[in-house]
Amino acid sequence: MRFAFRALAFLFLLFIASGAQPGAAIRVDILRSVGGLPPHVAGLFEEPAAFQQAASGYYFVFDRRGHAVYLVDPDRANARRVVEIGEEPGRIIQPSGFDLAADGSFVVADVPRGQERIQIFGPGALRTGGFFIAGRARPQIIFGNFALSGISSLQYTGDSVLVSEPEHDGLITEYSAAGAARRIIGRLRDTGYDQEPDLHLAMNTGLPLVDPTGGFFYVFVTGQPMFRKYDATGRLLFERHIEGREIDDLLAAQPKKWPTRRVEDREVPFVQPLIRAAAVDPQGQLWISMAVPYTYVYDAQGDKARTVQFSAAGIISPTSLFFTRTGRILVTPGCYEFDPDRR
Predict the structure, then answer these.
(1) Residue 63 main-chain phi, psi, to 5 deg
(2) Could you say which residues of the chain have pLDDT below 70?
(3) Which of 94, 124, 214, 262 has the greatest count of CB atoms below 10 A from its CB?
(4) Whole-prediction pTM value?
(5) Rg of the chain, C-alpha, whole Å
(6) Can you tell me the distance from the alpha carbon of 110 to that of 115, in angstroms, rounded to the nearest whole number?
(7) Which residue ranges form the domains of the chain, and what is each CATH number?
(8) Which residues contact 8 (CB under 8 A, 6 or more apart)?
(9) Hey, what long-range contacts does 65-69 have (CB within 8 A, 24 or more apart)?
(10) CB within 8 A of 56, min separation 6: which ones?
């Protein structure tokens, strides 16, 4: 008995000597901004919903509320609008999604006359193609003041477009540049709301993400937060639940019966996302920004590696994340730049 007590006391002293304390909070890395767009440029945008950089060094800013895309010079001194508001081809109206390929080509999702459209623009911001998604836009979740549909989640590979479309009985639909559905990746998860189709689909809404080291991630943004990893053929590799004391209160506050909101001519479940943004870094690590101002980082095997907060003009909650070729992180709102290794 005395030996057991001495052993426990010795272990406790080792614990204290290591610098840890009983009940101490889990470490959170504070990443401080190392740059970004200057105020005279950032002030041009009504609501920057994406801030990304091409291999050429030019930056692109997707201004969702302004119905526009801006091109910013590599020196960040000047910005010009390269895509204007409008319903006709080459313009955008009620846009909700944007993504950029390394060569400077990009895609924008918008909704002219209630129909979901994806347009493709070349490196010179000239429209090179586009297509409509069959049927009318079906809002799935409410994000702030916006009712978002599947095309809001798009990811552009330079050759194809990945979209979250659970209404097609799968998680990810991959479209060719001509608008042909090439394949559907991933089965829907069980939600317990099978008798409420709109809610079941809303709980399967997510973000499809290309892993630069190979394969895809799919991050469920509503309901029980979790993500899946698929290989390049679409085979499921693993599934992980997203947990942390920072989101315990959010999960506890999830309703059992979901309210509805009228959007256009139909009632849709008023489901707000628990996840605001996600991206994959050059090493294949998955960064997930929650509805509270914390970002969880998972390694290539799906294990949590870090908990991060972004600090610029105070702590910010990212609405988009983008990794440059040099590994820097571009974040909205604010159009800030961060070094993931500089704390």
Answers:
(1) -100, 95
(2) 1-26, 135-150, 263-265, 343
(3) 94
(4) 0.89
(5) 21
(6) 8
(7) 25-338 (2.120.10.30)
(8) none
(9) 67/92, 67/93, 67/94, 67/95, 68/92, 69/98, 69/106, 69/108, 69/121, 69/125
(10) 74, 104, 123
